[in-house]
Specification:
The chain has one domain. Helix 10 packs antiparallel against helix 11. It has 18 helices and no strands. The protein is an all-alpha fold. The two termini are 30 Å apart. 63% of the residues lie in helices and 0% in strands.
């Protein structure tokens, strides 16, 4: 792909439109090596000056983020962390539902097994609560595909119940309890029960009864359920994924599945509550 062709393709991605650019995405998939530096630069621009991206109504980051994730590009990982660690208003304007629906996948697919940056997002109370919750989910993806890391991730989560990690009304606490349920609460039950007793987990988000039900399952069953759900959240068909989350005309595409009647239901309904505003479809 020539330099002029690359610029033409990127310009099309950057235009606000409700029409999904399927042919252009196909072209991008065939020219990963040539396009990747340009896609990285787009995400870097969001990280460096998100307000400018909002005011100038850019849209290329929507395609760039998911293409880089599909390419499992490790150079995008820290850029994603920076690009989602922005002020709430700009976060909503630029990323919308991508924060809750696709950020876990973006973080997981680009981390190359290194999770310290994701842990940093979870632990940073200065960052939007939904970004922190998405980072928790990304860590559960790590465990789903590498169960040997479960103890590492669970131990990290267990240390986040001091009551100082977020405001009392934050979804952080409920999401933390729900994610531990996904990983099987088991050895975390005493910590979780104390969090409920201390009133830092809102029972409108997840109830202690939900946690007890999850604890009654075997760890093996919990892991099988988690693995099935995570795999379904990261479909191979990049077209279906981009067209759905970007809210284009997507009548022919299925939405990512949601498990029913589990603690994760509570987590997803809570974490997406205020994310209906979506700027890629302005």
């Amino acid at each position: 792909m020539s330099a002029p062709d690359i610029q033409t393709l990127l310009a099309k991605f950057d235009q606000l439109s409700s029409i999904y650019l399927r042919d252009e995405v196909d072209a991008a998939l065939k020219h990963q090596e040539a396009l990747t530096p340009h896609l990285l630069k787009i995400i870097e621009s969001v990280a460096e000056n998100p307000l400018r991206q909002v005011l100038e109504e850019h849209n290329g980051h929507v395609y760039a983020a998911t293409l880089l994730s599909h390419f499992s590009e490790p150079a995008a990982h820290q850029l994603f962390i920076r690009a989602f660690s922005i002020a709430e208003e700009q976060l909503i304007d630029l990323w919308g539902d991508m924060t809750t629906e696709t950020l876990p996948t973006l973080l997981y697919r680009t981390c190359n097994g290194e999770i310290e940056g994701i842990k940093g997002l979870v632990a940073n109370r200065e960052i939007d609560q939904y970004v922190r919750c998405a980072a928790m989910e990304a860590l559960s993806y790590v465990v789903a595909f590498d169960p040997a890391r479960r103890d590492e991730v669970v131990g990290f989560f267990q240390g986040l119940f001091t009551g100082e990690e977020a405001d009392r009304e934050s979804y952080f606490w409920g999401n933390l309890a729900a994610t531990l349920c996904d990983l099987h609460p088991g050895e975390s039950m005493e910590i979780i029960r104390k969090a409920f007793a201390d009133g830092i987990v809102s029972t409108t988000f997840i109830g202690l009864g939900n946690v007890e039900v999850a604890n009654d399952l075997s760890r093996e069953v919990a892991m099988e359920s988690l693995q099935a759900w995570v795999k379904a959240r990261m479909p191979v068909d990049v077209h279906a994924y981009i067209s759905w989350f970007a809210e284009f005309n997507h009548e022919d595409y299925e939405q990512p599945p949601v498990k029913k009647n589990t603690p994760k239901d509570k987590k997803k309904s809570g974490s997406s509550k205020n994310k209906a505003k979506k700027k890629p479809k302005k």
